[in-house]
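Researcher: Hi, I'm a grad student and pretty new to this. My advisor asked me to get structures for two proteins we've been looking at. I'm not sure of the right format, so I'll just paste the first sequence and hope you can take it from there.
Model: That works fine. Here's the first sequence with its structure tokens right after it:
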Amino acid sequence: MSYLTLKNINKIYPNGFHAVHDFNLEIEKGEFIVFVGPSGCGKSTTLRMVAGLEDISNGEFLINGKRANEMGPREREIAMVFQSYALYPQMTVFDNIAFGLTLQGVDEDVIEEKVKNTARILGLTDYLDRYPRALSGGQRQRVAIGRAIIRKVGVFLMDEPLSNLDAKQRVTMRSEIAQIHRNTGATTIYVTHDQTEAMTLADRIVVMKDGYIQQVGTPYDLYYEPVNVFVAGFIGEPPMNFVRGVLKDGKLTFGANQLDVTKKLGDKAKKYEGKEIVFGFRPEAIELGSKPGAYVVKADVELTEMLGDNTNVYITAGEDKAILKVDPHDTPKIDTTIEFSIPMESVYLFDGETEMVIK
């Protein structure tokens, strides 16, 4: 296992495009870190700089306290799993998994023992004689992971390894990757644009946007204590609802509803009077009906989506729209007016200009 340090890491391409800005992160031994964010946010570029596949424009990258900027990929003792599997089609599963050890000149008996142990961990024992073309997408990805973990390196890097799988395979592979991490204990950096993968796999999540880190924290931290509108809207499914408006007499307009946020703002109520704020609440935080001590909202039902364990209810209140998550047995009818309550402790307020959370 290795620990990693990234200090003020930047990536600037020859054409002047600044892909990663002042990236700072300490990764502990055995930690599972997930980089998450929309396409083009710099997460894969950062991963490739850690792997040595991209040069670091400026800043310092350390492996176990030793500067690694000038090290080649092999010197870094890092294994990488790509989105495309990158298997050799002319080789069997056995030979694909063994490839790295074969290049190192490891004894054949040792290779055979390690491949069989790795195949057992990954559920590939019955497929060692097959070729990649005879495997499913999930099985191919397990082979690619096997080729990485057999080397017993200090760091595993995974770049969107599940993006080519269907929904059911992704769920299965998520649990398998989590189990592999528990078995190996290796320091892991995992890149994805899927916040569900991030929340279910990570010890800590790094949320990125436009090349900048937005927030670093545990899944709990990011869900319950987002630092800004972007993180609050990116983490959670469906995403957090936002209502923008100018604060007038301590109240915010949500359709025909007047929501008094003075108590929530506390001693900052006067500071934000006459300024734009963002009122945020998660779809699952609401309760249907009017509840004492909560923000009560009347809205019209536009659409409902029955999803089995819950129903998404799309509502409008004036020009504002939101999504509510309710028990399927309580699904309201389309084109009716409903009343719902948002507990005060479940409300987030953000500065309308900076979009940072108002503590």
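Researcher: Oh nice, that was easy. Here's the second one.
Model: And its structure:
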Amino acid sequence: MAKIIAGVGTSHVPAIGAAVDNGKTGNDYWAPLFQKFEPARAWIDEVKPDVCIIVYNDHAHAFDLSSISTFSIGTCESFKSSDEGYGPRPIPDVVGDPRLAWHLCESLIMDEFDITIVNDMTVDHGLTVPLSIMYDQPEAWPCKVIPLAVNVVQYPQPKGTRCLALGKALRKAVEAYDQDLKVAIFGTGGLSHQLQGPRAGLINAEYDEKFLNDLATDPQAVAEITHTEWLRESGSEGIEAVMWLVMRGALGDKVDEVYRFTHCAASNTNYGMTILTD
């Protein structure tokens, strides 16, 4: 059977992708952050997942306000990079795993999650930046990828309890698959940041550290955080971190923290990473 071997939580700051694409990772601003990626890259090179399920939010590129789905899974053979206003990123196409993706959709729908099945889509920085963080600039991505898009842009977003439950159902689905695969699951987005309004530039590092602590040791407490608290404490975009609960739900009750760090600021975001294993 397939097995979830680890969970990765990472911010998906678009400027990180731009730094990679434009050869700026070694300059004075970006080098301190990219140096902290090296242990994570060494770890993933060692464990070599066959498939990465990447939980992320689309930023109005593959989806828009004409149709808003809470949870969507991409079932394509491959996914091209979205044009986010300055052309698609110069990266390899993301290779999907349609057979596993359809299996996940079937299992999750039978478990009463209303999953939107997407057979034609592009992927934006929410998904591609985490790949660049973990794999740098390969000629081809060394794993297959299943995109799981979550609406955290347009209210009402899913509750943390629903995201945690989705992760548990994902684990059940993966473990029922009939191929021997190593699967990593990524929760992406956050940490605290706000891009507009009077609080633009908000960073709440203390709140983010508590989030990371509780995510590992008491995920139910994180799941109970209300939308109002997320917005108040971590900013209008910081609520993206609710997607890390899907990753955490796919792991066991007790986890080991393989690696963790925060870096303030990456562009206008408090960057965070955690790698968790059962």
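Researcher: Is there anything I should tell my advisor about the second?
Model: You could mention this: Residues 3-277 form a domain with the Protocatechuate 4,5-dioxygenase; Chain B fold (CATH 3.40.830.10).
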